[in-house]
Structures are given as C-alpha cells and as structure tokens.
Amino acid sequence: xxxxxxxxxxxxxxxxFAPLMQPTFRSIWLATQxxxxxxxxxxxxxxxxxxxxxxxxxxxxxxxxxxxxxxxILSVFAGVLADNFSRRRVMFAGRCLMVIAxxxxxxxxxxxxxxxxxxxxxxxxxxSGGALNDPAWxxxxxxxxxxxxxxxxxxxxxxxxxxxxxxxxxxGGIVVASFGLMTAFTVTxxxxxxxxxxxxxxxxxxRSSPLPRESMRTAIYDxxxxxxxxxxxxxxxxxxxxxxxxxxxxxxLLPLVVRDHLGGGPLAYGTLMAxxxxxxxxxxxxxxxxxxxxxxxxxxxxxxxxxxxxxLSLALTSSIPxxxxxxxxxxxxxxxxxxxxxxxxxxxSPRWVVGRTISIYYALIDGGIAAGSWVWGTVSQNHSLTWxxxxxxxxxxxxxxxxxxxxxxxxxxxxxxxxxEFDAPAVALNLKPRSGPIVVKVEYLIAERNLxxxxxLMRQRRHVHxxxxxxxxxxxxxxxxxxxxxxxxxxxxxxxxxxxNHRLTEVDKELDERILQLHAGEEAPQMTxxxxxxxxxxxKPYQSILHLPRH
Length: 551
Description:
Elements: H1 23-53, H2 57-84, H3 87-111, H4 116-144, H5 150-179, H6 181-201, H7 216-229, H8 231-247, H9 249-252, H10 254-261, H11 266-293, H12 296-316, H13 320-347, H14 354-382, H15 385-401, E1 438-445, H16 451-467, E2 471-477, E3 484-491, H17 494-502, H18 506-516, E4 526-531, E5 544-549
C-alpha cells in the first residue's frame, strides 16, 4: 500500500481522468483512498507508539521493515492467486485480513497489552493483508478500464495515494496528540471496512481462460521465467530494489529525527510526513511535464539526488521548517522514482502474467525496503543517527550511478493482449491434460541467401516462445541437407502446450508470417508433435508422433 506506480502521460491530457468514468474503478479507487488515509494515520500512531515504549533505535526502524517484509514473502504467491483465481475474491480476502488484524491491534491497545514485538507482529499481519490485496488490485486495473486508459489509471493510483499522504500523517499526528492512540487505531479500523464493503458490492468482467488453472509451482516458474527474460522489468526491479534499500532511511528514521534532533512530538512528526506527501503530490502532478523534456532514466537520477539531499539535510538540521522543506524534496524524488519503475513493470507485462510480474516487483522492492530499514536502524543504534542518514545519502548517489548498468527504458504503450484463439490440433492418442512432456519440432527449408535474416527472426522467435512457456528451445541444421533447419522445444504437459499458444499475441503471429516468407519449400513447414516416454524397464517405452503441416 506504500508505493504505487506513477505517471506516464501528462495529467493535463483529456484522458488522464478517463478511468474515473468507469463506475467500478471509480468506486474502488475512492474507497482505497479512504483506506490509505487510515493506513497513514495508523503508521504515525504505530511509529510513535514504538518510539515511546522502546528505547531501541532498531525497533523503531523495524516498524517500516514489518510493513514491507510481508510483500517480500507473500507477493509472489499473491500474484499467482491474482492470475489464476478471481481477483475480486483475492482482494476481498486481503482486505478481511487487514480489518481483523487492525481490530486486534486496537483491542490490545485498549486493554493495555502492548509490547514492541506485539506491535511489530500486528503491523506484519496488516501488511500481509495489503500484500495479498495489492497485486490483485493492480492487475485488475486492466480488467476495469480500457487498454488505452491503463497508464492514466496507474497514474491515478499514485496521485490518489500521495494526495492522501499530504493530510493523512498530519491528521494522524493531530488525532494522536489530541485524542490518543486508541482513537487513531479505532478510526483506522473503520476506514479499512470501506474498501471491504465496496469490493463486496462491485463486480467486473474478467476474460476467463478455457484452460485449467496452473499449479502453484508452474505458475511461479512461468512468472519468474517471464520476468527474467524481460530486460525492461529486470532493470526496473533492480533500480527499484536499490532505491528502496537506500531511501527508506528517510521514513524509517524520521521518528528518531523528530524525537532526538528536532525535539518534537507526534504533531511535529505528522506535519513533517505531510510535507513529504505534499512534495510527492506536486511531483506526481508535474510528472507528465517532466517526461516531455527528460528521459525516464534522467528523472530517476534526479529523484535519487533529491532523496539524497533530503537525507543529508535531516542529518544536519535542527530546524523543523528546514526539515519540512527537505522532506518535500524527498517526497518529490520518492514518487518520481517509483513512477518510473512501477509503470515500466505494468506496461511491459501482458495480461496473463501481470499479477505475477507486479508481485515479483513488489516482493523484491519491499525486500529491499525491509533490509534497508534494518541496515539503517542498526547503523543508527551502533553508531549514530547522523551516520545512518549520511550513509543513506551516499547510497542514493550510487543508485543514481547504477543507471549505467540498469537503465530505465521508455515505453508509451502496454504489451499487446494475447489473441487467445488457437485450434488445438487433432491427435491420434487420448491425451489427458497432464500428459507429457510434449516435444514440438518444426522443419524449415531456408536458402543460403536468406540465412542471416532467418537466424535473426529465429532469435526473436526463441525469445517469444520461451517467455510464454517453451522449454529447451533449440535450432538445428541438417548436416546432410544444409537447407533443412529444425526448431525444437518442449512443454511439460499437453495443457502447457495449449496454454503457450493461447498466450501468443498478434505481433507474435506476424513474426511467424515473416519466418514463413523465408521458407523455400512448396508446402508449409511440417510440424511434428511427440510425447516423450521413459525407457526404464518398469514401463513399456513408446513415442507417439503426429505430423502436421504448419500454416
């Protein structure tokens, strides 16, 4: 619930607020803002409660770790659930967990049963509900709005959260200072009920696959493989993880800055958090303008420099106004950085795997944030708060320089949707869904003059097929008939073979047509489908082969 992807287009454009014309998206988006307001109030209350009952700098910093660690542990599984089950039900289950955990925390505070580890435990449970909800919610955006509105919808997620951030922490500080922790926790629990009721009422259409659900193991493997084969997603995740690790010191150590450097209380803490949110909102509103004149990579570097300046200022200042200005700069850098990496992942992911890629993104960046909270908390406790903030500033400058190895790439359109139109070939055997492994061979005749073009297209084909499920892809040339080339790959089961073909897009089909134009035979390339069988004595070996013309 903390970092949501940001803008890819100018907010002044007519389509920016178009997703709000969709009633379902609008209802859940508005309910989410109410919940985010409560979550920010609760963050202030939990952080300040920990700072008042614990003398350990590490325990205070671990509040941020407990809020982000669940995403690292659970997001990948949540992404699989989002891609294979009803996303609405997954969101509802996550919201239920948040309500229950928040109510238990409220009851514990009311009864006086609080301890540092109990606070961290409830914070972990609340964040676990968010880790279950977030991938399903982000993946559902493409189900609720039209494809052309996806970037604008993702922008609204960021702008909405960061708008709430401008008032949520300050409101939390006022409530804690004026009415006490019990009131803050009670109000938060009530705000969590709003999206729960909205999700219960709202329903939206999702294209269902005619194929059975993937097993958890296969789905995780497919998601990891697709992510590993996407240079865009890998670069975005790498930069996001490093940025989270380096920059989280600003938020994780802010209660200590307020208590030890500025001599303030919960109201001052909430006010400074509001300054952070104000900077984030202005950066979100101006993101489209920035993108017209600067590349996303340059924006990422500027964001790192802005957060480094914020961290260094907090280490050196003893003035609340100066700290507020520094935090506004840090908030601007924060949302600019996450806007680049978050939208890169969303737009580079086709619908069949978007829940998993988003969850892997969340898992790794939240893992970086949790690790950073522990690292900077340990540095602060063993050395000094100033050392920790200065170290964070230095690390952020290194993240800016990491663009040489992991540059962010520009993308204006999302990945095309799969055609999901495939007529399964007739086979002579009665195959079961789990029958396999299936071996696919396609034979081509390629003239020498077309060889370089053919090899270039086949490299693209290998990438396309491997990322949608093909395994052990190879290309072989016949030594006795040099014009004959054989493409071979495997799928674990017959269902996986069908699923592979359902995931291909129109662009992928166009690549097939370009390859066919290079085929020199009078007939179409011949495709052979086989099923492997073990050759052990315990089972009679056989191999079924089906020859099919490839159209």
